[in-house]
C-alpha cells in the first residue's frame, strides 16, 4: 500500500501536508504524533472516510482514491469499540457477513474461527455490556478480521484500557497481525505503544512526516529535536563539537558520530545513558529530586546547561540526597548529536 502526496484541508486548516508513504505488504506501520498532527486524518483517508484535497491512495496496484469505504477491502478497529450494545458477541462479529448475505453455515463457521483466533471461544451469547474492556476490544478486532481485509486499520484502539491491560492487548494484536500477515496501519499518540508493536514508525507533526524509521532508528538516531523529544525521554543539551571531542558545560569527553555537526550542536542524551557520581570528571550539578523506581533511581539534576533527567540503575540501593553536589558522565550508547537549537 502507498500514499502519494496526500493533502487534506479543512477550511484554512492544513491537516495533512503532502504525506507520502510506502507500506510493505504484511507489515505493521504506526502513525505517531501529538493531537492535531494529522495522523487520524491520514488514517481516515486510507479508510475512505475522508477524501483527500489532493493526492492518491493505492492498495496493491489499485488506485482506491475514488472508491467509497465499503469497496476498499479495508476494515477499522475504533477507539470506542463501536459495538452494537443490543446484539450478542456472535451477531456483532457476524454483522459484516450478514450485510453481505453470506450463507448461515458459512457465517457460523467463520464466527467460530475468528472468536477462537482472538481468544474468545464460548462467549458468543454474551452482550457487550457483560464483557471487560479487553474482551470488548477483542470482539471489535474479531469483527474487523472476519471480513478478511487487505488492510487493517487501528484508531487508538487501546486508549480506553488500563495500563496493564493495554500491554497485554497490544501484544495480542501484534501476534495476530504477524500470524495472519495482514498489512496494518496503527494510529497512536503513545510512544511506548508504537515502539513495542511496529515494524516501522512514522512520526508526524503539524500535518507533515518528521521521520520514518524502525523503532530502534527513531530512538537512537532521531532526525530532529522534535523526534528526539517526542520518542521516549531525552535531555537536549547545548554542546560544542570539535575533533571528536564534545563539550557540555565544563565537561569534555570523546565521542564520534559520522556526519555530526561541527561547532555548536545539541546533544541528545537519554536518561539511562547518564551515570551519576559524587567525584571525578563529569558535568557538575546538584540533585533537585531523587526517587526510587524499583529497578533504577530517577533524578532531576540542576546544571549550568539546564535541568538533566537521569535514570541510574547503579545508585538504586543508595540514593544520592537532594541538594548533593554530583558529577554526570555520559555513556556512548544513548547519545546523538543534532544541529543547535
List keywords for this structure.
2 domains; 8 helices; Rossmann fold; alpha+beta; OB fold (Dihydrolipoamide Acetyltransferase, E2P); five-stranded antiparallel sheet; elongated; six-stranded mixed sheet; 341 residues
At CATH's second level, what is the architecture of the largest domain?
Answer: 3-Layer(aba) Sandwich
Strand arrangement, major sheet: 6-7-8-3-9-10
Count of folded domains = 2
Going by helix content, strand content and strand pairing, the class is alpha+beta
CATH class of the largest domain: Alpha Beta
What is the fold-level CATH name, i.e. the topology of the largest domain? Rossmann fold
Largest sheet: 6 strands, mixed
**Extended strand count:** 20
User: Based on the structure, what is the oligomeric state of the protein chains?
Assistant: single chain
Secondary-structure element order, N to C: EEEHEEEHHHEHEHEEHHEEEEEEEEEE
What does this structure look like?
The model has no long low-confidence stretch (mean pLDDT 94). The radius of gyration is 24 Å and the shape is elongated. With 341 residues, the chain is α+β, with helices and mostly antiparallel strands. The chain is built from 8 helices and 20 strands. The longest helix has 18 residues.
Amino acid at each position: 500500500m502507498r500514499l502519494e502526496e496526500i493533502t487534506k484541508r479543512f477550511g484554512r486548516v492544513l491537516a495533512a501536508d503532502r504525506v507520502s508513504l510506502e507500506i510493505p505488504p504484511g507489515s505493521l506501520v504506526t502513525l505517531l504524533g501529538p493531537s492535531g498532527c494529522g495522523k487520524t486524518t491520514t488514517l481516515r483517508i486510507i479508510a475512505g472516510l475522508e477524501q483527500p484535497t489532493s493526492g492518491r491512495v493505492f492498495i496493491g496496484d489499485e488506485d482506491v482514491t475514488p472508491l467509497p469505504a465499503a469497496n476498499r477491502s479495508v476494515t477499522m478497529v475504533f477507539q470506542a469499540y463501536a459495538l452494537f450494545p443490543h446484539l450478542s458477541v456472535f451477531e456483532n462479529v457476524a454483522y459484516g457477513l450478514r450485510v453481505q448475505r453470506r450463507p448461515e453455515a458459512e457465517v457460523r463457521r467463520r464466527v467460530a474461527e475468528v472468536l477462537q483466533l482472538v481468544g474468545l471461544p464460548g462467549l458468543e451469547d454474551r452482550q457487550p455490556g457483560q464483557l471487560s474492556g479487553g474482551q470488548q476490544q477483542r470482539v471489535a478486532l474479531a469483527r474487523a478480521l472476519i471480513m478478511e481485509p487487505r488492510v487493517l486499520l487501528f484508531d487508538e484502539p487501546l486508549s480506553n484500557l488500563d495500563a496493564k491491560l493495554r500491554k497485554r492487548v497490544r501484544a495480542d494484536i501484534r501476534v495476530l497481525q504477524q500470524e495472519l500477515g495482514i498489512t496494518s496501519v496503527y494510529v497512536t499518540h503513545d510512544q511506548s505503544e508504537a515502539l513495542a508493536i511496529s515494524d516501522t514508525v512514522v512520526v508526524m507533526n503539524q500535518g507533515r512526516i518528521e521521520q520514518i524509521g524502525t523503532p530502534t532508528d527513531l530512538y537512537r538516531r532521531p532526525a530532529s529535536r522534535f523526534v528526539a523529544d517526542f520518542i521516549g525521554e531525552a535531555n537536549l543539551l547545548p554542546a560544542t563539537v570539535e575533533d571528536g571531542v564534545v563539550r557540555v558545560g565544563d565537561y569534555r569527553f570523546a565521542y564520534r558520530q559520522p556526519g555530526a555537526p561541527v561547532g555548536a550542536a545539541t546533544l541528545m542524551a537519554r536518561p539511562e545513558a547518564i551515570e551519576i557520581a559524587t567525584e571525578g570528571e563529569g558535568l557538575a550539578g546538584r540533585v533537585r529530586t531523587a526517587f526510587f523506581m524499583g529497578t533504577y533511581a530517577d533524578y532531576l539534576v540542576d546544571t549550568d546547561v539546564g535541568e538533566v533527567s537521569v535514570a541510574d540503575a547503579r545508585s538504586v540501593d543508595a540514593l544520592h540526597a537532594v541538594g548533593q553536589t554530583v558529577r554526570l558522565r555520559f555513556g556512548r550508547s544513548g547519545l546523538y548529536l543534532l544541529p543547535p537549537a
